[in-house]
Design brief:
386 residues; mainly alpha; 434 Repressor (Amino-terminal Domain); four-stranded mixed sheet; 18 helices; 53% helix; 4% strand; globular
């Protein structure tokens, strides 16, 4: 065991769990001085003390003693500093390592399917971000009138890995990883207070960064760049809502009240009501844009008796909307929302299954890769059908 590795891991995990040294020491049955010496790397702990600390943190013992992979080519920005930033990067690095290991074991390495498109970006720039978004849609095999029904599957079809994390902070929606660190990869925050529409939009937003801003992939940079964010917003808007079909849907709903009109259009494209209003406001004079937002808030408050808050998503998409190829009709005016199980890539799970069935990896290793207990992994394996 390496005391400095343990110290680094302990500091990161304790901060991610928002615990003081005293709180963690108490939970592990240690004195504060004894714990502090371990976290400072001045003392090599006994195995039983490490087990107690791991249990108090709710992590496997291995997580305390294993060196972490450091990612460098990452675009990880947030509106305010995240205490869990280092832990998120460790989780993403571990996931990418496991993904590459399975690809190598099974001989199923996937090429960077964005390379050809990235090579054309500079030539497309004179036409603006909208032209790049339209080219991206064609690259992914989408027509100019086709909504995106399965963004995880779409990204994976071109070699973009998709991962989800749960960060209880709406200042962080997602990040992306460059090819140099095992990408291209998109990571989305699927905190349950963020609507699924935000998850979908964040995935498209990070795709925009992977195409437009590769020179900004530096893990040391944490502050947002307003121009880059605006470009990624425009990209995501036009990637998810192509002009031809967006304005057709908007015109078709012209007879509805503004709230109903926005909700109808947002459900077609699985985007936030804010994304729809931003798109509409692009064509309005500046003096009319504020009136549009005010009217939306007035109608919502009049109908529901409460304000339209930042995280409110009226008529959120239903449980099958994200992964279904085609919209599925559901009874009731307000179907249940998606949850984190419905927003996930398929490719890693497929590789895990093949690895188990070919005896390339053990069931316990499969459980570790997928973040399941061994019993949960056994249940999943038992449910696999040909």
């Amino acid at each position: 065991m390496d005391s400095q590795v343990i110290a680094t891991n302990l500091l990161r995990l304790r901060k991610a769990h928002r615990q003081t040294q005293q709180e963690l020491a108490d939970a592990a049955g240690l004195s504060r001085d004894a714990y502090r010496a371990i976290e400072k790397g001045r003392s090599l702990p006994r195995v039983e003390n490490l087990r107690a600390i791991a249990a108090a943190l709710g992590v496997p013992l291995q997580e305390l003693v294993t060196p972490v992979q450091r990612l460098e080519h990452v675009r990880f920005r947030s509106l305010k500093r995240l205490k869990s930033r280092d832990q998120v990067l460790v989780e993403v690095g571990r996931w990418l390592r496991d993904f590459r290991e399975l690809e190598d074991l099974l001989g199923q390495q996937q090429e960077d399917g964005l390379r050809a498109l990235r090579d054309r970006v500079e030539a497309l720039r004179p036409g603006g971000v909208v032209a790049i978004a339209e080219a991206a849609r064609r690259h992914f095999g989408l027509t100019d009138r086709e909504p995106v029904h399965d963004i995880c599957g779409l990204l994976e079809s071109r070699g973009v890995k998709v991962f989800t994390v749960h960060v209880t902070n709406d200042a962080f929606l997602g990040l992306s990883v460059g090819v140099e660190d095992g990408g291209p990869a998109v990571v989305v925050n699927t905190w349950d207070r963020l609507a699924v529409e935000h998850w979908i939009y964040s995935a498209a937003h990070e795709l925009g960064h992977l195409l437009l801003h590769l020179d900004a992939y530096d893990v040391e940079v944490e502050e947002e760049d307003d121009q880059q964010e605006r470009e990624a917003e425009v990209f995501a808007s036009h990637f998810l809502m192509p002009d031809a079909v967006f304005w057709r849907e908007w015109r078709d709903a012209a007879g509805l009240a503004l709230l109903d009109r926005v909700v109808k259009v947002k459900r077609v494209f699985r985007v936030s009501w804010r994304a729809v209003l931003y798109r509409v406001s692009e064509r309005l004079p500046k003096e009319d844009r504020r009136l549009l937002w005010q009217r939306m808030n007035v109608e919502y408050q009049r109908r529901y008796g409460r304000r339209l808050l930042k995280l409110t998503e009226p008529s959120g998409v239903g449980e099958d909307a994200f992964r279904a190829r085609w919209p599925i009709a559901r009874a009731g005016a307000e179907p249940a929302r998606l949850d984190a199980r419905d927003f996930q890539g398929d490719r890693l799970a497929r590789l895990v299954r093949e690895g188990v069935e070919r005896d390339v990896i053990t069931l316990s290793r499969a459980a570790e890769i997928l973040g399941l207990s061994v019993d949960e992994m056994r249940d999943r394996a038992a449910s696999w059908v040909a």
